[in-house]
Amino acid sequence: MTRGKYFIRNFNFPNPIMNASGCWCTTDQELITLTQSESAAVVSKSSTLLDRYGNEMPRYYENDSLSINSTGLANKGFEFYNDIGEIIKQYKPFFLSVAGIEKGDNVLMIEYLQDSINFDFIELNLSCPNIIGKPQIGYDPNDTNELLKQALKNKAKKEKLYKILVKFTNKTIKDYEKTKKKKHNGKGGGLSVPYEISSILKEFLS
After folding, report:
1. Sheet containing 42-43, strands listed edge to edge, beginning at the edge strand earlier in sequence
2. What Rg value do the Cα atoms of the chain yield, rounded?
3. How far is CA 85 from CA 38, 90, 143, 174, in A?
4. pLDDT (tens digit, 0 to 9) for every residue of the chain, 206 residues total?
């Protein structure tokens, strides 16, 4: 494992690798197992206001070469991950990931979590692609900007990362160019992008 100094705000990580929200991080057993790994931190399953079963079976397939999933944001609810964070933080920094289903859910969860000491970062997941009938808010810069303004309207007590999208069309990039200069009263944190980071996205919340 590569060793060095890797920072997110004032947090120093021993390496740049951690699990993605959704990968072996749904149950308490899975999360505790991650604390014993070489992962620099632990990221929870992206969580909703209430516990969620997710999509109907079958929703996962794997073979020797690949895996495909459409679990539909199955999780135990954000309060479960907040509670277990008290244990996880004894071993590694903990990112609590939230992904609201209905409009306003993300703001409610973030406001509830502001005074919690059970985790270090909130990951706001705007990119879950597997919810039937629900578009990814991250594809709409205007909706994203409005959500961030609502989520950050109060003094930020927790660092936040914004997990957006993997694939961008030319139009999407241009739309983000228009909104990237908008500030949110100096609040908030970093930008987390699965798999790839374009120069546009690096600057979006800088």
Report:
1. 42-43, 94-98, 121-125, 159-163, 190-192
2. 17
3. 18, 9, 30, 38
4. 555 678 877 788 999 899 988 889 999 999 999 999 999 999 999 999 999 998 899 988 989 998 888 889 999 999 999 999 999 999 999 999 999 998 889 999 999 998 899 999 888 888 776 777 777 777 777 787 788 778 777 555 566 555 555 455 556 656 655 655 554 444 544 544 443 333 434 444 44
In degrees, to the nearest 5, what angle opens at C-alpha 179 toward C-alphas 160 and 172? 100
Q: How far apart are CA 112 and CA 38, in angstroms?
A: 31
pTM (2 d.p.) = 0.79
From the list 18, 41, 128, 151, the catalytic residue is 128
128 is known as an active-site residue: yes
Tell me the β-bridge partners of 45: none
d(C-alpha 187, C-alpha 164), whole Å: 18
Q: Among candidates 172, 130, 124, 180, which has minimal Cα distance to 152?
A: 124
Give the integer Cα–Cα distance in Å for 15 and 40: 6
